[in-house]
Input
Amino acid sequence: MKEYYGGIEAGGTKFVCVIANNPEDILEESRFSTTNPQETIEKTILFFEQAIQKHKIKLNALGIGCFGPIDLNTNSPTYGYITTTPKPGWRDINLLQPIKSALNIPIAFDTDVNAAAIGEGKWGAAQNLDDFLYFTIGTGIGGGAIINNKPLHGLIHPEMGHIRLNQDISKDAYTGKCPFHHNCFEGLASGPAIKGRWGSSAENLDDHHPAWILEADYIAQAMSTYICSFSPKKIILGGGVMQKKQLFPMIHKQTQQYLNGYVQSEMIFARMDEYIVPPGLGNQSGMLGAIALAQSI
Output
């Protein structure tokens, strides 16, 4: 009986379930919308039960990379819960326990962005690096940090999408999409913020639309803050908004301008295109990160 690992990229918009050993050995995957918790969790469990029976395989372990905030404290009575999420119907939901009860295998649980970062470190753009950051900029904005080869948790876990940015209301009077902080990074630069400000989703805006000058500025503000805070050896920017590849050179230039020569590194002033980069795993960072998370048990 061949052995595999399971992975769940539990996103606020969609769930991706996968059975794999590495990027070249993906046995089966399924993507479906994140609806209500009961329906979504039942679909998740059914995928793995059917795949195990169909392929006659053994799952060694499962990794779950989940949208947040989540409870990662293994001593907490709400370990494995989604906590104060703004997603309707998902606040204070126990995601981990019903899946663990159904599948009865070891499960590693972390944020979706930490899982994606782990995947990028193992197979993607951050191979052989021990300190780096991964961001998804899409439906929401989140950041995962790998520090000394370990995902950073701290008090709960980083919420890098919720730092405050400088907003010039003479150029951008948008009130912000985040229900908690309004004009935080997520509130000003996420996909829903772009749609709320311009009346059209990111994928439908022309590459030369003024939206991208503003978007690059907000992302660069955040990146300069994280460079000064974490001193990462690389920053990876994924998510739906970052499919607009013209953003990268704009972000590079603006980040350099915000740092203003203060951080003296060749990566900053001469090799920025190698420093702030797209994911090496493309849109598979999250699901393969969940596999890598499972393999870390």
Remarks:
- The first helix runs from residue 37 to 55.
